[in-house]
Amino acid sequence: MGLSRYVLCIFSAFFTFHCFLVPQPGEKGEKGAAAFQAFFLIIIHIVSFTVLYFRTGDPESLYYCALQEVMIIGYLVLMRVLYPGCSSLLINNMLFFLSVGLILLYRLSPDDHMRQFVIAAASLALSLPVPWLVKKVKEPWKYTYGFGLSGLILIFFVLIVGRVTRGSRLSISVAGVSFQPSEFAKVLFILFLAGIFSEDCFFGESRKDKELRLINIGAGGLFALAYILIMILTKDLGGAAIFFVIFVMMLYLAVKKIYVPLLAFLFGGAGIAVCYKVFPHVRNRFLAWTDPFSYIEGQGYQITQSLFAIGTGSWFGMGLNEGSPEKIPIVERDFIFAALAEEMGCIFALCFILICISTFLVIINTAMRKKDPYYRMVALGISVCYAFQVFLNLGGVTKFIPLTGVTLPLTSYGGSSLLATVVMFAIVQGILLL
Predict the structure, then answer these.
(1) Are residues 379 and 325 in the same domain?
(2) Domain count within the chain
(3) In what order do the strands lie in the sheet with 163-165?
(4) Is the pTM value of this prediction over 0.85?
């Protein structure tokens, strides 16, 4: 079993290497290269659960391994059969993140693992018709304001009746099921901005390639401001930052003016300063970020334990079930990357980051290949949302930036984030098929 950590690092390196070798959808050799990459994904999953079985003696680990293999292989086959022109690389990467998350969650909390597995299977099933819907729905920009208002209603509902978690109003419960509406509001916000910034929808004119009018920019800005203010009022500042960055980057693509990111930098800095003054938990996070070891018994405890875990893992990791990631509070949600680095090693962690970059590049490439401004905007918005959320999580875990409480997409425990991300990736697949 001691050799397993080297095996996992080697196979993760092979998987990562193929992320940059798999041809574009429809190109010669794409299916074969993607199938070879999927083989490494399956081996990593099987080896990990086998190690957990021998180290815990729990036969349920093999049971869950078999069920998850059925889920992974079934989804791979169904997507290939239903949508021959889809991106196999994007599918493989998404399933890699899901499988790594399920491995770590079984190690950290079997109960959370079981719930996450059920949600993952349901999310994959629900996402299957999404590419078909993207192709089927004609002129989706006609629903621009419906998307924007629906997202606002979702997060406003949280502000009114949401449940407080760690000082922030994040979720609501319906029939005993808790979910986080802001995750789905991100998707609606992207669809709204894509419509606003790619057509003159105020006057009912046909879509034309023309200079974006100020009224469109103003409408997009007002909606973005409303989203951000509501998120600030719920004290979900990580979510507010994601909405802000999505708006700025999509506006920048629309107007192509350098002053957009420059002004965003100034307004963003001013907003951070105000939040620092107003919210005590923001000040605590800044203190923990600037000098965590001075507050190791208080505000800095999470980040110091995260840094210890990453350092302890070294290159090849302690081995699954051999480390102490449970010392990090809320490790399965905010700090799962630290658990990964400790038990699976920094080589595996670096491969994980490279796979995140590969995923971002696949979505960006999808945006660049589309001539239709609406779908190009949607793909760009999804790429920005995904990349910035990964940055916020990994940056906080490694002390590069202050902690924001944002989950690591597809890997951290959290059903709403998982479902929303799977749906966003399915939308990208649908755009590829157009």
Answers:
(1) yes
(2) 2
(3) 163-165, 168-174, 177-179
(4) yes
